[in-house]
Amino acid sequence: MQDIKAIIASRVAKEFRDGDTVNLGIGVPTMAADFIPQGVDIMLQSENGLLGLGPASASGEEQFDLVNAGGAYVTATPGAAFFDSVMSFGIIRGGHVDVTVLGAMEVDETGNLANWCIPGKFVPGMGGAMDLVVGAKKVIIAMQHTNKGKHKLLKKCTLPLTAVGVVQMIITEMGVLEITEEGFLLTEINPDYTVEQIRAATGAEIKVSGSLKDMTA
Amino acid sequence: MQDIKAIIASRVAKEFRDGDTVNLGIGVPTMAADFIPQGVDIMLQSENGLLGLGPASASGEEQFDLVNAGGAYVTATPGAAFFDSVMSFGIIRGGHVDVTVLGAMEVDETGNLANWCIPGKFVPGMGGAMDLVVGAKKVIIAMQHTNKGKHKLLKKCTLPLTAVGVVQMIITEMGVLEITEEGFLLTEINPDYTVEQIRAATGAEIKVSGSLKDMTA
Amino acid sequence: MKNKIVTAEQAVECIGDGAVIMVGGFASIGTPEELIDALVKKGSKDLTIISCDAGRAGLGVGKLLRNGQVKKLIASHVGLNSEVAYRTPDQPEIYNVEYVLVPQGTLAECIRAAGCGLGGILTPVGLGTAVAEGKETVMVKGKEYLLEEPFSADFALIRGSMADQAGNVIYNMTARNFNTVMAMAAEHVILCAEEIVEIGAIDPNHVMTPALFIDSIVGGAKPCRI
Amino acid sequence: MKNKIVTAEQAVECIGDGAVIMVGGFASIGTPEELIDALVKKGSKDLTIISCDAGRAGLGVGKLLRNGQVKKLIASHVGLNSEVAYRTPDQPEIYNVEYVLVPQGTLAECIRAAGCGLGGILTPVGLGTAVAEGKETVMVKGKEYLLEEPFSADFALIRGSMADQAGNVIYNMTARNFNTVMAMAAEHVILCAEEIVEIGAIDPNHVMTPALFIDSIVGGAKPCRI
User: Fold this and answer.
1) Considering only residues 92 to 151 of chain D, which have any Cβ-Cβ distance to chain B shorter than 8 Å?
2) Nearest residue to A82 (alpha-carbon basis) of C174, D200, B83
3) Each residue of A59-114: pLDDT tens digit?
4) pLDDT tens digit string along D67-81?
5) ipTM of the complex
6) How many angstroms separate the CA atoms of C170 and C4, rounded?
7) Cβ–Cβ of C168/B91 closer than 8 Å?
8) Which A residues in the span 37-96 are in contact with D, Cβ-Cβ below 8 Å?
9) Among the four residues A23, A148, C146, C170, which has the most C-beta atoms within 10 Å?
10) CA A163, CA A142: separation in Å to the nearest integer?
């Protein structure tokens, strides 16, 4: 399980370019920060009002006014800046975040995303997710390929949408998929899986790139 | 002439209430700050980004980054705050300025104001005037009653408007007029003038308050 | 100069039943717990709360929810309050509260719009989702935007790190969040600060909320341990 | 980390003919004179300038006007530049410049709208005046607002008091004005600062423009004596 998360997070980190401003969702996306390649220097934005998000606080060294968007105690890096929520979402909606990485409940082949509620059951709210996926230059979904076998990559989302046609790339433990005019395109694969296994784990058609790469390479 | 300005400015100052946030235009309006009654404590807002505008700088003591909205070196009072132009006009448009005092080229009996250009001749621009008169809770025009004999208080403005129906009070060297449903209402008079003189100096009908007061008292 | 400094009890005395109240904070960081406590004690009912979130179970807005004082909650996220996030079919409206969920950037911007005298905002966020239902859209240069209306309030309860006696406020780190903008959008703004200093003790360049927005100042805010 | 520090000449090298450029400052306070000087030297033509004002005669934007580099000026006020304010019937367009005058709050807010990804602003300012001519209005809750479109630019030339090497900026006093918002609304932002310090030397609470907005940093800005 930890392996699966590490596979996803390490592949996500390869999408970052030197100088990028990046917003990472809670969970697997946040882990990507631990795998950033040498020579790539990015600034992490946290939508509660921080550019220059650092690692979680060491126990006993928490600063009570410094949390991340998940409400957990964190640190700030040298050169950080604090600002209010209006500025923070001005940065997000204004297209100043280069990459945002989030989890999802469902993604469909047109790039629609559902990740904010299960009606009548679990309704935590969208928080900053709708702003992030509409505003960021590149939207990457990082998640396990299925929900305990249940399809999350679909022909059409069934849950309430977070946004329409915003997802560009999906990174799972099985492979990397891009959203194209013709739907899901598998561009990289984890050699532990076969294309057939990925097809079986996906609720929509998948095209396979002519130059399919090893996502773990 | 200095007397005329002092008469206007000192009467303007009586409109301020303790705790008010006030924006004063350049010229006679700015002079009102010198006549604020004892026990009345106001904060002056300057639209270039300052709450807590103080008097003009003493010669040789200018701070090169501190000017008023007229571009002249000024001081800041204790408890002042600096902010950017977006916040400054958020304050103004948002109705957080209690009183704004400006000069005018023309005011008409419906409260229309013209003070930003003479087409083909003098076109300095509206600067912050349009925002100020639309946003402030109370709009007072402080000016000489005529332009060397030419009417400035009119039935209908002839110059391009700054805003529609925004003026509540006009303070001149001759008297104090309020804009009412029935047009100009003279509520106070400078005893150096007669009502007939004021009528002759005004390009619209004037009603006279039943309880006409001495504006210099 | 007017004295703005009062106790928490005095500060919330004016908050009656049915009031619309903005509460600052994000995940209970930057939330004025002492003002919430006073409001719980006062017991005002049928409140409409506008807040980034629902606090945490028993923290921030969570206290008002538990105490049954809230009629309607307008927020972007309630997931950190475990008492609220899991709404099951047999418990559709926990605490009998009406929830209105708003994208966080839209919430911030619509509060700002009210504070800045704008008629609303034109945002691409929420188009094609449940958020857009029943709302007008406007085309600008061939692109569609959702027209979201301003959020204003009768009261704002905010929390600062340091304030001078006039009401100039400084916030610390991520505790700034919604406090600045809520101070602009409410009729009556109550600040709870950790430290109150003399006028002139704060560098005017560092002020984050200018004094004109603050009506009452309560001292003694404690660092919030979550 | 990318090195953002360059000379003024290097910084403006990318500004070609026909560029749309925002220039910070109010009455020449907070205007990056050294960047303007470099742009005068480079001689780029047919520029569209978006600025609060026209600088002063021979100062700020006034230098570009005098040098015939400006095709169009979008500003709220040009009265402090004596060469521009008095446009007589026989001199209708001094320097052959097209002037677009915009209320100052609308100018600031429309620049912000571009920087924040909003489709425009809904403002009551300008209704019933020449400013509203040819523009759409929108009714919200029975009140009319003018729809003003965003202002974006290819470049912003701004001036700060202090910056760190990453590009976090602090402004002094009233020199902040339009610099913060212009940094958000232009594709490429060039900062001229009085002092450049090490990363970590600026308190993150005091940063007024976060580093992500700044592309190039030029040192050596001199205090502006008007």
Assistant:
1) 92, 99, 101, 103-106, 108-109, 112, 123-131
2) C174
3) 999 999 999 999 999 999 999 999 999 999 999 999 999 999 999 999 999 999 99
4) 999 999 999 999 899
5) 0.97
6) 17
7) no
8) 41, 43, 45, 51-52, 76, 78-83, 87, 89-96
9) A23
10) 16
